[in-house]
Amino acid sequence: MVITLMSLIKRVRQFPFFHCLTLAAILMINGCESTPQNVVKIGTNLWPGYESLYLAQNLGYFHNKPIKLVEMPSATEVSHAFRNGALDVAALTLDESLVLMQHVPDLRVILVMDVSAGADVLLAKPTITSLAELKGKRIGVENSAVGAILLDGALHAAKLNITDIKFKSIMANEHESAYKNELVDAIVTFEPHKSKLISQGAITLFDSSQIPERIVDVLVTRQSIIEQNKDTLKIVIAAHFKALEYLKQNTSDATLRIAPRLDVPSTEVMKQFEGISLPDLIENHNYLSLEIASLSSAVDELISLMKDKQLLFKSIDSSQLIYDSLLPEK
């Protein structure tokens, strides 16, 4: 099915299974038992850049505080669950956060978790050896802003338009089966699916290193959640940095703990982090500091790009988006 870029973006905003996903998300998060009201629920999808949170939990760095990590099948579902109040905190890309901010005006970025520098990719069947050969081909993309941005970058490099390809909406957890069953000729994906698809013969035609600092993963919450749970959120962020240090200093043990979640041998875990920068505490202060305004500049550029590509359907005020007060002192 050939669609326009505007149609693609409308599908991002008006996901056909929105209500079902929202209900499923709430059931998944709350389960059959009631959850205490003061539990801080943090939603993620499966992505190496978010593993610091699960490693921190595994190592006991949350100190038995009321913190619940919730893994969901896709960033789309994480965003929907957060928007509907089923989550208190969400791990999302910066552009996904800006899309979400259209509905959650008091959204706050409280941590930069990782920066993609080659980890997000456009993979293709080995018979397709150049971007130009994508014309007329079926390309699988998750219904998310980050998928649209990477695809846009690839098409721009290929000097193609969205109408030159056949877009197929495929959720992240279905990327491997879609490729294996030949439902697509190429697919926009990321780890841990990236390595598995490459092992099956897929080749990289385009990656996020060619659109530097466009894909940044952040931790977001609401201002109201900060006011209610500031101390708990500080523990989460401190635990994240402690886990990164553990990964660096005790790599063998850390990879043994991470491997089952990524469903790869422990010897392959660090390969999942290739193409991902994991900013430390000092780098986070630089990103979130209003004086240095590193992330603020990226936000302005991204908003401009997303408006140009019709990824935002209304104006947003990002002046209060970046919040650095939960970071530990340098």
CATH class of the largest domain reads Alpha Beta
What is the third-level CATH name, the topology of the largest domain? D-Maltodextrin-Binding Protein, domain 2
CATH superfamily of the largest domain: Periplasmic binding protein-like II
- Domain module count: 2
What's the helical proportion of residues?
A: 40-55%
Total helical segments: 13
| Secondary-structure element string | HHEHEHEHEEEHEHEHEEHHHEHH
Give the structural class. alpha/beta
N- to C-terminal distance: 52 Å
Name the beta content range: 15-25%
Provide mean pLDDT, rounded. 88
CATH architecture of the largest domain: 3-Layer(aba) Sandwich
DSSP, total strands = 11
Largest sheet: 6 strands, mixed
Taken from the alpha-carbon principal axes, the silhouette is globular
- Uncertain runs: 1-23, 32-36
Radius of gyration (CA) equals 19 Å
Brief rundown of the structure:
This protein has 2 domains: 99 residues, D-Maltodextrin-Binding Protein, domain 2 (3-Layer(aba) Sandwich), CATH 3.40.190.10; 193 residues, Periplasmic binding protein-like II (D-Maltodextrin-Binding Protein, domain 2, 3-Layer(aba) Sandwich).
